[in-house]
Amino acid sequence: MSKNKIAKNTEEFDRRFDDGEDIHDLIDISKAKIIRYGKKVRITLDVAEKLVKDIDSIRAAIGVDRGALIKVWLHERVQKEKALGVEH
Questions:
Q1: How far apart (Å, rounded) are the C-alpha atoms in residues 10 and 25?
Q2: Number of neighbours of residue 31 by Cβ within 10 angstroms
Q3: What is the pLDDT of residues 18-39, one digit of tens each?
Q4: Contact in structure between 69 and 55 (CB atoms under 8 Å)
Q5: In the chain, what are the domains?
Q6: Is the pTM of this model over 0.90?
């Protein structure tokens, strides 16, 4: 198997990825890190039906799972609060 020619810039890399080209030969994963945040804990939330519908319309537009979107939003908010020093 021959190696792919290196992309000249990020735009070319993104285009090749978006076109479905195999880009594994273009990525150096030797310094990649896997981050494990520890034991998962299940939580249950009761929210208004309208809010769920709004979340679902957003997640459908970007093509992700509802739970994944909510986790990303929670993570982003926690990071923002930590940056503001709102941490105990």
A1: 15
A2: 5
A3: 999 888 887 778 888 888 878 8
A4: yes
A5: 1-32 (no CATH), 34-88 (1.10.1220.10)
A6: no
